[in-house]
């Protein structure tokens, strides 16, 4: 992994933490304020004297909006991650991520009920989001995401991500996705290894010391 000055890593860590706070606050606002207001509006409409067709149209619009708010709120700061853990949160995200609708993917976890500390789990969730949003498998291949946990280490790896390494000079000038991966891994003191197939980089392997 490319090394970065300590001051740069500290600054990036601070920015990442601030970003997470903004995500959390916005998700809370969407869930607690906007959703509650829409629910109250729907209840008032149902009790009003409007025509049935008008009421039905309005309530359908509200239901659609509520679903979008819930989905966006979960994408910003998934309550599933805090409540049910990393595997459940990632499974939900991968099923619902718009950027995956035309991609083939596979999530493989061992053990299936692995439990990571909150900080590492959140970092890995963000890494998966970032890589999935910006990395494409080669035609006909499956994007493979693996989580492994042992008494000493926690590992996240991606396979078949050739698009992240399309630039011949990627090692010296990493694209924004790879740069963010490097910074997030460095923030937790982890290690990042690039995986190769026939001398071509096609994947990532990220390892953190186990805190469980």
TrEMBL record:
GO CC term, one of those recorded: membrane
Catalysed conversion reaction: ATP + protein L-histidine = ADP + protein N-phospho-L-histidine
UniProt KW Transcription regulation keyword: no
Superkingdom of the source species: Bacteria
Residue span, Signal transduction histidine kinase subgroup 3 dimerisation and phosphoacceptor domain: 23-80
Official protein name in the record: histidine kinase
InterPro entries on file: Sensor_HK_TwoCompSys, Sig_transdc_His_kin_sub3_dim/P
Keyword set, alphabetical order: ATP-binding, Kinase, Nucleotide-binding, Phosphoprotein, Transferase, Two-component regulatory system
Pfam families with a match to the protein in the record: HisKA_3
GO molecular function: ATP binding; phosphorelay sensor kinase activity; protein dimerization activity
EC number: 2.7.13.3
């Amino acid at each position: 992994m490319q090394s970065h000055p300590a001051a740069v890593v500290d600054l990036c860590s601070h920015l990442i933490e601030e970003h997470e706070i903004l995500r959390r606050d916005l998700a809370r606002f969407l869930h607690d304020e906007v959703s509650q207001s829409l629910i109250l509006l729907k209840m008032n409409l149902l009790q009003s004297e409007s025509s049935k067709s008008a009421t039905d149209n309005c309530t359908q619009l509200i239901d659609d909006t509520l679903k979008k708010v819930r989905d966006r709120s979960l994408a910003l700061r998934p309550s599933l991650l805090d409540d049910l853990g990393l595997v459940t949160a990632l499974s939900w995200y991968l099923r619902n991520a718009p950027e995956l609708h035309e991609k083939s993917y596979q999530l493989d976890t061992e053990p299936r009920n692995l439990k990571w500390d909150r900080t590492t789990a959140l970092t890995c969730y963000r890494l998966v989001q970032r890589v999935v949003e910006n990395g494409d498998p080669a035609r006909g291949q499956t994007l493979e995401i693996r989580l492994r946990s042992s008494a000493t280490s926690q590992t996240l790896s991606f396979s078949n991500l050739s698009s992240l390494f399309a630039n011949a000079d990627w090692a010296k000038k990493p694209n924004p996705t790879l740069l963010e991966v490097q910074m997030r891994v460095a923030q937790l003191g982890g290690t990042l290894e690039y995986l190769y197939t026939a001398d071509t980089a096609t994947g990532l392997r990220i390892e953190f010391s186990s805190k469980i």
